[in-house]
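DM from R.C. (forwarded with permission)

"hey, sorry to bug you on a friday — could you get me a structure for this? deadline for the figure draft is monday and I only need the backbone to look sensible"
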Amino acid sequence: MKLGIAGSGMIVKEFLTITPFLQNTEVSAICGRKSSQEKVLELANANNINQVYFDYEEFLKSSIDTIYVAVTNSLHYSYTLRALEAGKNVILEKPITTNYKEALELGRIAKDKKLFLLEAITTLYLPNFIKIREMLPSIGNVKIVQCNYSQYSRRYDSFKEGIILPAFDPAQSGGALMDINLYNLHYVTALFGRPKSIAYYPNIERGIDTSGILILDYDTFKCTCIGAKDCKAPIAYNIQGDKGCIHQSSPANVCEGFEVMLNNGENTSIDENKYTHRMVSEFLTFESMIAEHKLEACYQILEHSLMVSELLTEAREKTGIIFPANFNEELLTIY
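My reply, with the result:
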């Protein structure tokens, strides 16, 4: 995989720390906005990235075959669309797009062109999460699922002072649902599939959700997903069945380990993650999938991302949280 990176934010810096694990990936180019030139050049120099671009169209003309799109949420659609149209595979940071309509369009184009389109959601590739799915039958019939990922954001301090950063900016498709509760929704739907119904109860300030609760009805059991950036609490995931409980005390996107606590008093602690960094397993999977041209496997995962996008869009729009249309030419400057 000859990889180019679009973006220069925190997630890019984090990704670059795991590249030594990717034996069949060459990070050969990075593209950033001109106003971030110093930061982009520092990243390139520190990581031996030879090609640096500040023009996305020129970047797309380079010899890279796969683009890691790691820009602000509101630009996901436009940057991925242009990459696919240029014949590039795309690994796209979460959320896949601002809304379901955009996600469907990108999925259609990727399939038509027989290109890879993969949403970067670490949860799905972590061995501990895969093990949780295997262990579900041991706790009997599921009755209640609780997910609480609450993490106070320092950006909320700025938000309260009137300084609106992307994480809390409706124009940038921010908010707690898109940034943090999304992980919970991926976690639950990857375990149990599409719910019968979904509802969102957010705390809204200045037109954006700073925290909120998703309620998913699975008919035979109910699920709550809490995502908060304006307050904190112990992170806790509980899957409660009539024979026992699976308990996890780390976020869905990390899944450091979990306990299986059965009604008969038998408790088992499990930790099968192979790497300390959450992104290694997912990018090793992407690397292998693209190298072996496993398009069908990619499109199966894409169907899951499309389902989550549809649910996110439904939940958000029911509450009246509306993101501006992001097809504007003036929004197409690299983030």
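R.C.: lifesaver. The CA atoms of residues 101 and 310 lie 8 Å apart.
me: no worries. The chain has two domains: 2-123+280-297+320-331, 127-272.
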